Amino acid sequence: MSIIVENLKQAIIGESNAKYKYEQFANKADEENLPEIAHLFRAISSAETIHIKNHTKALSVITTSEVNVNDFLTINKEKLNNQVKDTKNNLLNAIEGEIYETKKMYKKFIKNSEKEGNNVSELTFTLARKAEKIHAYLFNKYLKLLTAEKPIQKVKLYVCQICGNVELEGAPQKCPICEHSQKFFNEF
Ligand SMILES: [Fe+2]
Ligand SMILES: [Fe+2]
């Protein structure tokens, strides 16, 4: 079980760092007069908050105690601030992070959960992993538009409050990741 506790803490740290980093990337996109990219960074940053919440709840259930993330959470703001480049490179940085989480970090954490027979951590890691895949896809879509110098249309973004899935333009009847209904999507 200790490995699951460690994995949950690592995931909370990773998500918290990503959340902070995307906020800085959003500010940079605003500076570069790319408001739609700033909007996407902020929506996905808010989605990471949902992962933090879900992982924290799982940690609390598994350890049967109240969790104060500040006991172990570290956000190296200086290091993250140094990662802020122009928006094209910031999108590349974000894509790399999301792919790392999908293909390495969560993949490993899910395997550990299966080995330990821990359904609680397996669920929160699986939902987050699927959402990160969508995040990578969306960042990539915007990167392609930016690279092609195509205009990025103003769209509404919808964030599933259960799993952190992000949808463009409209909220689906049912979330394709967590299967909760449309009413759990917030317009962002
Ligand atoms: Fe993400
Ligand atoms: Fe969802």
Structure overview:
Helices cover 66% and strands 5% of the residues. The chain is mainly α. A 3-stranded antiparallel beta sheet has the order 2-1-3. The longest helix has 30 residues, at 2-31. The structure holds fe (ii) ion (2 copies). One fe (ii) ion is lined by residues 18, 44, 48, 98, 132, 135. One fe (ii) ion binds next to loops.
Q: What's the structural blueprint in terms of helices and strands?
A:
Elements lengths: L1 H30 L3 H29 L13 H6 L4 H30 L2 H29 L9 E4 L5 E3 L16 E3 L1
Antiparallel strand pairs: 1-2, 1-3
Helix pairs in contact: 1-2, 1-4, 2-5, 4-5
The protein binds fe (ii) ion (2 copies).
Outline of the structure:
The chain has one domain: Ferritin, core subunit, four-helix bundle (Ferritin, Up-down Bundle). It is built from 5 helices and 3 strands; from the N terminus they run H-H-H-H-H-E-E-E.
Principal-axes geometry comes out as globular
Q: Any guess at the CATH architecture?
A: Up-down Bundle
Oligomer: single chain
Task: Look at the helices and sheets and give the structural class.
Answer: mainly alpha
CATH topology: Ferritin
- What is the H/E order? HHHHHEEE
Q: Count structural domains.
A: 1
Our measurement of the CA-to-CA distance between the termini, rounded to an integer number of angstroms, reads: 37 Å
- Outline the biggest β-sheet: 3 strands, antiparallel
Q: Helical segment tally?
A: 5
> Which strand order spans the largest sheet, edge to edge or round the barrel?
2-1-3
